[in-house]
User: What shape does this take?
Amino acid sequence: MLKLQVRRWSERPRVLLLMLAVVLPAAALIIWNVWHLRDLQREKGIEAVIQRNYQHVLAIAEKRIDERAYRMTEEIREKFPDADQPEDLESFLTTHPTVSHAFIWSGKGHFQFQSQPGMMDDPEFRGESKELSSNIETWMGIESEGYLYKLKKMAAGDGHHALITNEWVHRGDKMQYLSAAYFIPHGSSAEHPALAGFIYDPDFMANTFFPQALNEVVPDEGHNDASHPEPAITVRTSKDQTPLAASACWDGSRPEVERTFDGVFPGMILGIGLHGTTIADIGRRFARQQFLILGALSLLMGAGMILTYRNVSRELALAKLKSDFVSNVSHELRTPLALIRLYAETLELGRISNPAKHQEYYEIIRKESERLTSLINNILDFSRIEAGKKEYSFCETDVADLVRSTLESYRFEIEHNGFHFEQKIDTNLPPLHVDREAIARSLLNLVNNAVKYSARDKYLGVYLYRQNGSVNLEVVDHGIGIPAKEQPRIFEKFYRVGDPLVHNTKGSGLGLSLVRHIVRAHGGEVTVESAPGHGSKFIITLPVQASELQQEEAVSA
Ligand code: ADP
Assistant: This one.
């Protein structure tokens, strides 16, 4: 018992060690990931990354919008009247509807301001024109030198010939943002310096310029959905939360990241947000997805580990059973062979004169060779079954007769061994379709076990009787019995109960697995009822053929 347990325990740490070698690194990786994710979640790391990316997108957007504004201004400046032809301002305005007002300044008292003639009917526009004209004239008086200096510096620096800036004018009780361009007109000279400029139509800027510029930065890809939300960019003035213009995907929500224009549109603010979702939502969804993936991975790993553990344990147990089997079988073969040899040699020497002794020795030699034969038959049957080559030859058989004749040759020996042998065989049993040899071998295996595993109370009972649709063959002993938890396993190949009483008895662990195979091949079943110290009862149930049952029914009717 002790030896057996020591062996079992020496296998378990090996399996556990093997499992740990895989589980520990995998578990460490999962735990590290969970930790990392929780840190990311706590510090809003994912949101921060998205926000940084958005700042970057807004910086690019501003640069593109600036370039577009410079290009457009440059084209208009090319067509602007010369410094000494202020009277051409009106026709310039008529051909440039995107411009609301234009002016030329060429020294104190020489200021020409002209507004879009077609719009002068609008009193608000007239007011705007008046306010601008007086503001700009005042500015020119004070700042003209500063402007001239700045413009020359710009032309020498980044090559831009216009200074794009803004003007605020009153529109009712609100302030209107206007984009203005200042430049040195053709015809301006060192002796007669001149400045010119124009104001863009605010409706054109809001409805055409900005939407086109924004859509160029974030074009509408047309596959905006909840899993791939597209970003939308808006532009507003610092005095108003409502956007002036927005790119196509804008869903009306407030932008999540903003950036104030540095150069061309001072006082304008760019904003970016996602269609139909928020950055916080994306962060949450990302974290949830990662946690789910990690959870699923952990589950898979756990299930894999359990499966591997069970498989490896089973393989190790089978390997152990096989090695036990080899040693048991060699032992079983050696003992009868040694006895046969010993008694044969003794007889050969011719020293024994007592004829009764002769008889006894012959008997021993016969019995031992019979044991050898049955062991070898078991092993051969087993290997045939394992190779899937076991064949049965079924024929109609009187089972009562088969059982009786099988037991007959053993009765003397059993009783000789001090057993009380009881045999109850019902008459009138229907003939069964069985393989005679296989059924006889099954019975002998059960009888042998009953004899082997009986200690003081030596009783052997064999009963054959009819029960419903089957014929039952019972082998009963009053021997050592089998613990309940071992009972399901004794029919497995190589399995022997881990009891010292059993281990001191010769055996290969094959007998019952053969019995079960044979009985199942006959469409029946073998079961056991047993309790330690109270003996065992093995019951083979063999089905009666349907044709027999019908015949019986017909007779009884
Ligand atoms: P073995 O060659 O070991 O007898 P078996 O397959 O015939 O192999 O039986 C398997 C195990 O079942 C035995 O080792 C023994 O522990 C137990 N066993 C079988 N029959 C009996 C019985 N009649 N009484 C007690 N234990 C039994």
Q: What stands out?
A: Residues 158 and 463 are 114 Å apart (CA to CA).
